[in-house]
């Protein structure tokens, strides 16, 4: 499967939707209207690995969350994972057009270096434009249809961690190499 994912050198941006990607797409609401979601704790180590690979210059991509949701729970989880979070974004494709135009003003096809992980209909426009789109196994059928890769994990149940391990090609590392990376996390 790692050969399906673009090489780390060709990627400049990895963006994640939040609900249904980091979460199981469910929400708990208490009597005061406070919302809570369930995330996978394994994602934390996955982003530690990303930062270790970034320190070594193996991958230079920016990683961030791009969510329509305005609930503070998205920001809290992003903060915990030490990720930038763009939230309250109604039109993700327009956001990306502006973001990429500012970051790569001379690139004719900056979408080519983008990986986007999404799960629902509002992710379709951006997923059709990026170089590589990834979806969890419980994504909307139309999202699965256009995704370049559908992982077996469901959203919030190891999906993000699995993607990152595939991206970093963790299975190709020796146990000693993994120990060295973990000790630097």
Describe what is shown at a glance:
The chain has 185 residues and is an alpha/beta fold. 36% of the residues lie in helices and 15% in strands. The strands form two sheets. The protein has a six-stranded parallel β-sheet.
Question: What's the number of helices?
Answer: 7
> Which value, in Å, is the CA radius of gyration?
16 Å
* Strand segment count: 8
The strands making up the biggest β-sheet line up spatially as 5-4-1-6-7-8
Residue ranges: pLDDT <50 for 5 or more in a row?
none
Shape from CA axes?
globular
Question: What is the N-to-C succession of helices and strands?
Answer: EEEHEHEHEHEHEHH
The N- to C-terminal Cα distance equals: 25 Å
Instruction: Tell me the fraction of residues in β-strands, as a range.
Output: 15-25%
Mean pLDDT: 93
Category by helix and strand content: alpha/beta
| Biggest sheet record | 6 strands, parallel
Overview of the structural elements:
The protein has about 180 residues and is an alpha/beta fold. About 35% of the residues lie in helices and about 15% in strands. The chain has seven helices and eight strands, in the order βββαβαβαβαβαβαα. The protein has helices spanning about 40-55, 70-80, 90-105, 125-130, 140-145, 160-165, 175-185; strands at about 15, 30, 35, 60-65, 85, 115, 130-135, 150. It has a six-stranded parallel β-sheet. The protein has a two-stranded antiparallel ribbon with strand order 2-3. The two termini are about 25 Å apart. The model has no long low-confidence stretch (mean pLDDT about 95).
């Amino acid at each position: 499967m790692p050969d399906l994912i673009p090489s780390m050198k060709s990627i400049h941006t990895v963006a994640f939707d939040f609900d249904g990607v980091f979460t199981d797409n469910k929400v708990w609401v208490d009597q005061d209207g406070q919302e809570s979601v369930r995330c996978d704790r394994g994602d934390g180590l996955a982003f530690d690995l990303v930062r270790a690979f970034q320190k070594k210059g193996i991958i230079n991509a920016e990683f961030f969350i791009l969510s329509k949701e305005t609930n503070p729970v998205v920001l809290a989880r992003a903060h915990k994972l030490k990720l930038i979070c763009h939230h309250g974004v109604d039109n993700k494709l327009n956001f990306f057009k502006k973001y990429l135009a500012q970051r790569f003003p001379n690139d004719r096809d900056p979408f080519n270096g983008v990986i986007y992980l999404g799960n629902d209909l509002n992710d379709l426009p951006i997923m059709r434009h990026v170089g590589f789109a990834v979806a969890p196994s419980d994504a909307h059928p139309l999202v699965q249809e256009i995704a370049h890769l559908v992982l077996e994990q469901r959203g919030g149940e190891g999906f993000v961690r699995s993607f990152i391990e595939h991206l970093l090609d963790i299975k190709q590392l020796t146990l000693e190499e993994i120990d060295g990376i973990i000790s630097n996390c």
